[in-house]
């Protein structure tokens, strides 16, 4: 089975990758494609919050969203290292949901893994727009990893 | 400060590189770029066309008189040459940082890079303010109810919200808006042709330079204004990394888009000069509407005016959206490069938008708009917003000149056979042109230097705060602007 793991450089997407590794059977997965999508016209086309690389020094890689995407790809791929399946890394550019679905079609994927989006107010109600679109239009099953719930009621009870 | 990445890169990265099947070297690997050359052309065209002519044509007419199309022609030529310098640098360094990056590459001075970025930001803020007031004056022709300040603030707020939620990624959207803009300008041209066909046009107007004093100086003033109408092209450099085959398509699309925009500008300004008395253009808030109001075409003037107001609103929205996208992007890049406080690099957890930078930009522009309208109410005779928009042309000119110098200085470096090479004599002409306009702007209006100094001072204060706060949590041995991160580069 070919599995697509999407990352937007957020810690949630890293958590999603870890979640996949926590339960899936590496014997049944042939290849994992880690996909990062750059949004060219957004203010910040790609923000990498998970790699441990040094930020580029001025002038060297300054303003390179591709390098940021590469950093995030490396960080997520590191999760699947020595696990079995071959790892394939992809940077694409365009609308995240559309590109993730395209990749899934191209590889005839068996599963797409995405993070649900953030927490906060949206915690209970919303799934991120990308996750939502992928669920609706993906050609295969989709695993939407939601953030762990915060222990809200417990703390409120004490106070 | 959010500088969590100060730890040295780990050996993990190299292991991963070993297992991967594709690398950063793209072409037919997995790294798909999304913007085609044609889309880039329309992106440039939309960027350039929207910004200036709808708001500025009146100012140029006021400065020069009936012959203001000459000012447009020269301003446009100089801008297009500058665009060629940008195109050459973009094919060498296809990254999003723009002018700051090139200046850094060429001169390697952090202070100069910083000043470039701050000046560019200041110019961008002023341009946004000017566009927002332009929007409100066109809006008033549709519905005069709400006060202008409220309209421009709501307009700004709406764009910030759109940006926060996540800008529509589709370049197609931008293309559609560009078609609407071009359609609006075509209407003006048709009116001009119709007027000529009726035999009522007085071509003498086109050579009429009606300014007291030196006509050369008057034309120079007009050039400075029309140059501002061409700005915005540098935003195209931001999407360099995402363009398919950038070495081929970038020079074509950038310079081609600017030349087309320039030709359209010259024709439109000729049409405006022929159909509307110059002083009427000069006194109008929404100058291009005057052309339509003349009732030359056999349509109801009301319908045409409404239609045209809507077109102008779309055009201005398009350009303002791009400036609102660009400002947080610059702040984000500067924060990543450790030049401004790291808080600007904060990304919203859910929406993935740089909300701190967005809010900051919005606050600055809103403050500008409010102060400007208070000053007008107070009757000080200062139109702060448009004053700043003009003042910051000085910044832009200096930056453009610097970019051309950087382009010439970087000749022979980082070149390969795919690099676009701009014509050297033309670049020198462009540099001289830029400096001439720069010199004239200062000569014509020495107080603009005071304004500029004030704006730079704000940036320097930010820089000092960052310097004091940032040096504490920088890892040992990693000096500001340390270029020795070889391990990172190798990964």
List key phrases describing it.
heterodimer, A: 159 residues, alpha/beta, Rossmann fold, disordered C terminus, B: mainly alpha, Amino acid/polyamine transporter I
Description:
The complex is a heterodimer of chains A (159) and B (491). Chain A is α/β, with parallel strands linked by helices. Chain A has helices at 11-23, 65-79, 96-106, 122-125, 129-137, 152-158; strands at residues 2-7, 31-38, 86-93, 111-115, 142-145. Chain A has a 5-stranded parallel sheet with strand order 3-2-1-4-5, with helices on both faces. Chain B is an all-alpha fold and 491 residues long. Chain B has one domain: Amino acid/polyamine transporter I (Up-down Bundle). Chain B has 18 helices and no strands. At the A-B interface, helix 2 and strand 3 of A face helix 1, helix 5, helix 13 and helix 18 of B.
Radius of gyration of chain A: 16 Å
Q: Major beta sheet of chain B, specifics?
A: none
User: What is the CA-CA span between the terminal residues of chain A?
Assistant: 49 Å
Integer count of domains of chain B = 1
Share in helix of chain A: 25-40%
Instruction: Give the overall shape of chain A.
Output: globular
Instruction: Tell me the name of the CATH homologous superfamily of chain B.
Output: Amino acid/polyamine transporter I
Structural class by helix and strand composition of chain A: alpha/beta
Return the CATH class of chain B: Mainly Alpha
Unreliable stretches of chain A (pLDDT < 50, length at least 5) are 155-159
Strand percentage of chain B: under 5%
Q: Helix segment count of chain B?
A: 18
Q: Numbering strands along the chain, what is their spatial order in the largest sheet of chain A?
A: 3-2-1-4-5
Number of strand elements of chain A: 5
Which CATH architecture of chain A? 3-Layer(aba) Sandwich
Which overall shape of chain B is indicated by the principal axes computed on the Cα atoms?
Answer: globular
Q: What structural class do helix, strand and pairing data of chain B support? A: mainly alpha
């Amino acid at each position: 089975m070919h599995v697509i793991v999407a990352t937007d450089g957020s810690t949630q997407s890293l958590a999603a990758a870890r979640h996949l590794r926590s339960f899936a059977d590496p014997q049944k997965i042939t290849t994992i494609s880690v996909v990062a999508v750059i949004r060219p016209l957004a203010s910040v086309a790609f923000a990498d919050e998970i790699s441990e690389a040094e930020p580029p020094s001025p002038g060297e890689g300054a303003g390179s969203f591709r390098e940021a995407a590469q950093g995030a790809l490396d960080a997520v791929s590191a999760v699947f290292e020595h696990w079995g399946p071959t790892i394939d890394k992809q940077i694409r550019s365009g609308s995240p949901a559309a590109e993730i679905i395209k990749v899934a079609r191209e590889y005839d994927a068996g599963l797409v893994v995405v993070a649900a989006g953030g927490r906060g107010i949206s915690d209970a109600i919303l799934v991120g727009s990308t996750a939502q679109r992928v669920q609706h239009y993906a050609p295969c099953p989709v695993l939407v990893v939601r953030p762990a719930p915060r222990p809200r009621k417990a703390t409120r009870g004490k106070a | 400060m959010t500088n969590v990445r100060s730890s040295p890169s780990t050996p993990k990265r190299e292991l991963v590189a070993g297992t991967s099947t594709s690398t950063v070297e793209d072409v037919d690997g997995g790294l798909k770029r999304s913007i085609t050359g044609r889309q880039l052309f329309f992106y440039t065209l939309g960027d350039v066309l929207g910004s200036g002519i709808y708001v500025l044509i009146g100012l140029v007419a006021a400065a020069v008189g009936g012959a203001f199309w000459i000012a447009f022609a020269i301003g446009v030529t100089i801008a297009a040459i500058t665009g060629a310098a940008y195109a050459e640098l973009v094919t060498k360094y296809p990254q999003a940082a723009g002018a700051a990056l090139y200046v850094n590459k060429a001169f390697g001075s952090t202070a100069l890079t910083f000043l470039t970025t701050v000046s560019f930001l200041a110019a961008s803020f002023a341009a946004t303010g000017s566009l927002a007031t332009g929007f409100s004056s066109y809006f008033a022709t549709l519905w005069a109810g709400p006060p202008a300040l409220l309209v421009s603030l709501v307009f700004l707020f709406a764009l910030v919200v759109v940006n926060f939620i996540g800008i529509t990624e589709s370049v197609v959207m931008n293309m559609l808006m560009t078609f609407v803009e071009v359609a609006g300008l075509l209407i003006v041209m048709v009116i001009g042709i119709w007027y000529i066909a009726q035999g009522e046009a007085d071509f003498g107007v086109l050579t009429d330079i009606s300014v007291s004093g030196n006509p050369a100086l008057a034309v120079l003033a007009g050039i400075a204004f029309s140059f501002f109408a061409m700005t915005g092209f540098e935003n195209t450099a931001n999407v360099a990394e995402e363009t398919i085959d950038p070495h081929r398509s970038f020079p074509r699309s950038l310079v081609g888009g600017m030349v087309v925009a320039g030709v359209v500008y010259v024709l439109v300004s000729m049409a405006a000069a022929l159909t509307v008395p110059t002083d009427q253009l000069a006194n109008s808030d929404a100058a291009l509407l005057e052309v339509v109001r003349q009732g030359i075409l056999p349509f109801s003037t009301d319908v045409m005016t409404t239609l045209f107001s809507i077109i102008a609103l779309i055009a201005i929205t398009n350009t303002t959206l791009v400036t609102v996208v660009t400002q947080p992007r610059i702040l984000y890049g500067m924060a990543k490069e450790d030049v401004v406080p790291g808080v600007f690099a904060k990304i919203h957890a859910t929406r993935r938008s740089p909300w701190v930078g967005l809010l900051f930009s919005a606050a600055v522009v809103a403050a500008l708009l409010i102060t400007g309208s208070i000053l007008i109410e107070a009757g000080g005779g200062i139109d702060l917003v448009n004053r700043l928009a003009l003042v910051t042309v000085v910044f832009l000119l200096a930056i453009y000149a610097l970019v051309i110098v950087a382009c010439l200085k970087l000749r022979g470096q980082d070149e390969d056979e795919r690099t676009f090479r701009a014509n050297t004599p033309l670049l020198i002409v462009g540099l001289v042109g830029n400096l001439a306009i720069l010199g004239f702007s200062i000569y014509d209006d020495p107080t603009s230097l005071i304004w500029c100094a004030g704006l730079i001072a704000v940036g320097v204060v930010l820089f000092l705060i960052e310097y004091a706060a940032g040096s504490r949590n920088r890892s040992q041995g990693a000096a500001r602007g340390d270029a020795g991160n070889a391990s990172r580069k190798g990964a």
